[in-house]
DNA sequence: GTCTATAAATGGATAGAC
DNA sequence: GTCTATCCATTTATAGAC
């Protein structure tokens, strides 16, 4: 693996674990196993390296979410697949985590990948729900965009509740509650 | 206002804005307008002061949430009052924010107020929903505990989505979607 | 109780040898 | 390209004067 690649991956891990403020260039270098000079040769500095790492993480998350949402089954089943997919809940969301970092949200460049990723996610879930309505699987009264935001929020908020409790149970409960509510919108004919 | 009080309030503000890692004793002192010695006279150090600040913030949040949830109206109306209450959405939740801070969740003492606060919140919402069921306002099939976790998660996740977008719209959409789903559980007789 | 002075460690980055 | 050495500010805390 190239030095650049090792630096990016170390940064991805550290940003996830400690956030932007909590991640020092020194820690990145140590984890990557490279010297100080290498980092400043390949990247302009901490924020430049963070940008590369955040973009990479956002892209990966997008792909893994899309695998659930574009899979087979009804709209309800695809949303359920997304909500129930395996997660290391107590680690939290690597992208959602960045929204709590002042330096990240205040930098248009660093915030952009977060905005893009969550915007895409809400849009994709809304598409799945709208498709379910067209197929007659879901109640026509459902607002696809609002419901999509709710689904995305349940996941992000579930992480918060789980980390506060140091227990995955609140995450699972939040997902279960959301799915039960959504199930009540599934039309009898399609159920 | 006493020196102690000024220190606690400055810490509350800074923890909200910058998180635990991002908050230095120096910044606290400057905002409080006191010297270095005062802080170490009244508090053992940064974490001790943070503990006082987090406890205070959690207590305040509990009171303000309870004001909505214990108000007048049907169960749906009380949950709606909580979800729709005025918030400075882009600032995020001062308690939820702490769950993204490694040093906080790894310290049993610092995490305890978060756990207590969110545990209480989920329990209180569940009580309101269960009461609604007993009164015949809400469908009996609803799982109060799971739905309560969903409601709490929607708020916390809504903050995340809003901060990523630098726009309150995703928060409002998530709340609207959750309320629409919950409204479908309101029994016709009580609607 | 409150202040300033000081200290040891870390943060983020630059210089320059190889 | 990669490394070590160096730099200055900040972090967290202690010491001790007032």
What does this structure look like?
Two copies of one chain form a homodimer. The first copy, chain A, has helices at residues 3-18, 25-32, 36-42, 46-69, 75-84, 94-98, 102-105, 108-134, 144-165, 169-183. The first copy, chain A, is mainly α and 191 residues long. Chain A has a domain at 57-183: Tetracycline Repressor, domain 2. The first copy, chain A, binds a DNA duplex (18 and 18 nucleotides) through residues 3, 24-26, 34-38, 40-42, 45-46. Chains A, B: This is TetR/AcrR family transcriptional regulator. Chains A, B: Keywords: DNA-binding, Transcription, Transcription regulation. Chains A, B: One of its GO terms (molecular function) is DNA binding.
Key descriptive features of the protein:
homodimer, mainly alpha, Tetracycline Repressor, domain 2, 0% strand, DNA-binding, transcription regulation (chains A, B), HTH_TetR (chains A, B), DNA binding (chains A, B), Homeodomain-like_sf (chains A, B)
């Amino acid at each position: 693996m190239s030095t650049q690649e090792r630096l990016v991956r170390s940064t991805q891990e550290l940003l996830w674990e400690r956030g932007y403020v909590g991640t020092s260039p020194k820690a990145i270098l140590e984890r990557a196993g490279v010297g100080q000079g290498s980092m400043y040769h390949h990247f302009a500095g901490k924020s430049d390296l963070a940008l590369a790492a955040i973009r990479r993480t956002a892209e990966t998350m997008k792909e893994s979410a899309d695998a659930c949402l574009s899979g087979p089954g009804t709209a309800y089943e695809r949303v359920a697949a997304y909500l129930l997919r395996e997660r290391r809940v107590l680690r939290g969301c690597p992208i959602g985590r960045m929204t709590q970092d002042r330096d990240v949200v205040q930098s248009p460049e660093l915030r952009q990948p977060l905005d893009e990723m969550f915007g895409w996610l809400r849009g994709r879930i809304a598409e799945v729900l709208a498709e379910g309505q067209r197929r007659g699987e879901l109640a026509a009264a459902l607002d696809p965009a609002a419901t999509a935001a709710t689904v995305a929020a349940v996941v992000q908020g579930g992480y918060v509740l789980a980390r506060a409790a140091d227990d995955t149970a609140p995450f699972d409960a939040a997902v279960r509650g959301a799915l039960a509510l959504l199930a009540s919108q599934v039309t009898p004919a399609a159920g």
